[in-house]
Amino acid sequence: PAEDQARVAEIKQLLKQHNAVLVAHYYTDDAIQQLAEETGGCVADSLEMARFGARHDATTLVVAGVRFMGETAKILSPEKRVLMPTLEATCSLDIGCPADEFSAFCDAHPDRTVVVYANTSAAVKARADWVVTSSIAVEVIEHLQAKGEKILWAPDKHLGGYIQKKTGADMLMWDGACIVHEEFKAKGVEDLKRLYPDAAVLVHPESPEPVVRLADVAGSTSQLINAAKTLPNEQLIVATDRGIFFKMQQAVPEKMLFEAPTAGNGATCRSCAHCPWMAMNALDNLAGALREGSGEIQVGSELRQQALKPLERMLNFNT
Ligand code: CIZ
Ligand code: SF4
What we know:
This protein is an alpha/beta fold. It has helices at 2-17, 30-38, 46-55, 67-76, 92-95, 99-107, 122-126, 137-146, 157-167, 186-195, 209-212, 221-230, 245-251, 283-292, 301-316; strands at 20-25, 42-44, 60-64, 81-83, 113-117, 130-132, 151-154, 171-173, 200-203, 217-218, 235-239, 256-259.
């Protein structure tokens, strides 16, 4: 629509004017991902978003995603201004893991190495020994297990269970879940697979175990896009936020992509394969943030110092 085109033109001009770059997550709307591509920004998973923002020489990062991604950008680049289209965009994993309760849980298990998923607040990261994203979670836990360490894992129980099964590590688990991935149903995937027997099943391990069990490839968003390219299958059933289809279809234009079913038996779901918080990022509030300098992320310096340590461990791991 003409309105969107005008917004896009305005945002392009504002990005230049403010020496800003757009860092967008795979789960944001197509229009935002496209804009990030067209303006020399990035579309990525949370690990690559963090790396890209820290390395880029822009003085303002506009992070289109959810709150923890903006916080991570600020922690890694305190000298940069970090803006988000809205500060309301959070994550059920972050909400389900309040820092005070989490800290008490850690205090009760002082013998365990604390590993938290990136989808957490700065205050929770500050309490952790390690931060990981789903791209490198398995490798980090394997590394710690080889040193004989026992793990306290938070907050995603499905991802934690997947890693535990893969590595055999001793992991004490926080009880958190992603409201988007939790809705995928094994029965729905099996039904779809009967219709398309040659399809490969790609699953993000934030999904429930019965769905992960059906996966030909389980992995992070980047790993799933990669699998879409390398697998010979012409049809792919994908269990992760449908925002990923923008980049995945670009990577394999000739293949057929199917959303994994979220509801068996006509039941309704809360999120239907699209994160309600990612969806809060729009062209309008993105333009507004740049125009008005609104949605700025602040992280206090003491908190920043503490959260930086486990984040740097992640970024320096294996690189
Ligand atoms: O589910 C999410 O929020 C994911 C996959 C984040 C990320 O990029 O690691
Ligand atoms: Fe959080 Fe799930 Fe949304 Fe990712 S998709 S931001 S894990 S609620």
